[in-house]
Amino acid sequence: MRKIQMVDLKGQYEGIKERVNQSVLDVIESTAFINGPEVHQFQKELEEYLDVKHVIPCANGTDALQIAMMGLGLKPGDEVITADFTFAATVEVIALLGLTPVLVDVDPITFNIDTAAIKKAITSKTKAIVPVHLFGLAANMDEIMDIAKEHNLFVIEDNAQGIGGDYISKDGSKKKTGTIGHVASTSFFPSKNLGCYGDGGAIFTNDDDLAHIIRGVVNHGMYKRYHHDVVGVNSRLDSIQATILRAKLPNLDTYNKARRDAAAKYNKAFEGIENIITPTCSCSCSSEMKENCVLHVYHQYTLKIVNADRDALAAHLNENNIPCGVYYPIPLHLQKAYLDDRYKEENFTVTNQLVKEVISLPMHTELDDEQIEFISTTIINFLAK
């Protein structure tokens, strides 16, 4: 059996090696390293794939989220609602801009932001909602957009883990995640479903005026060299990363299908195991999710381990050379950097439980049946003790 890896970037690279190598050499030969033709071409190709009017590439996913908020003109003191159960970058940029983060609980089935909790958190200072499409599963965008419309709020989709995912609305229409809110951000960190070989990110929007502002923000506030019309940052996707992303983009749907196929095999293996709750997905979602169907792209394959010792299981997997991850072990509202007297533990019951139960298994495009069988059998045998 091949060595099991949490993410097998080397195996994926082998399938596109020839194109990647030649493309990188071509960029080096051209010396067009910043804002070169490869960046502009990637932008156009991603716009076409997503069916969105504007893609603005930038240096990384965290910058993308910050720049989206800067583009919307949010001011210090404005409140931004987001999920307590996610990576810190989401709340980090809110704090960096002097905005007020408002963390709320998540849904126990999808792990995504709880729309009822959003409604309770809205005040006269609320200006935006940041739903995170966690682990590759779209948040409930129909209800989030309805809430935003009712209260005149911006919706900023954090699509760092959901690139290529579809969202099927209650009216039957289908859109790519990241194209539903007013603006969205994504990350091209190497382990993402669409990842480069360094850092990279992008902002998406269908708003022409907002796109214009953001294009200035990413480039020191310039539209014309040495003319600084808005306060900006230095956040540009370099041409080498763009050419790698161009090589990968035509394969994104295939990559995501491979992840869904692997998830289906995991799900089958864990059927009937009472200590394991497998992730919800479009084809086997709970009855209450049927009318608002979503497609999972499994950036992570995350189990809930119930009435069993999750940490002991993680240690057992590591002892058997099976990598795993706990995303995320500490809620954001309990992180030292984001402690706030406003937060009450009774408002985070789901998140506080999830951090004790979740465990993510190897998930990538190169997983094979032998590896999946070994991983699942090792888990089942441990839980049967």
Q: TL;DR?
A:
With 385 residues, the chain is of the alpha/beta class.
Tell me about this structure.
The protein has 385 residues and is an alpha/beta fold. It has two domains: 9-250, Aspartate Aminotransferase, domain 2; 252-383, Alpha-Beta Complex (Aspartate Aminotransferase, domain 1). It is 38% helix and 15% strand. It contains twelve helices and 14 strands. The strands form four sheets. Strands 1-9-8-5-4-2-3 form a seven-stranded mixed β-sheet, sandwiched between helices. A three-stranded antiparallel β-sheet has the order 12-13-14. Strands 6-7 form a two-stranded antiparallel ribbon. Strand 10 and strand 11 (227-228) form a beta hairpin. Helix 1 (9-30) packs across helix 8 (239-248), helix 2 (37-50) runs parallel beside helix 8 (239-248) and helix 3 (61-71) packs across helix 7. The radius of gyration is 21 Å and the shape is globular.
List keywords for this structure.
single chain, 385 residues, alpha/beta, Aspartate Aminotransferase, domain 2, Aspartate Aminotransferase, domain 1, 2 domains, seven-stranded mixed sheet, three-stranded antiparallel sheet, globular
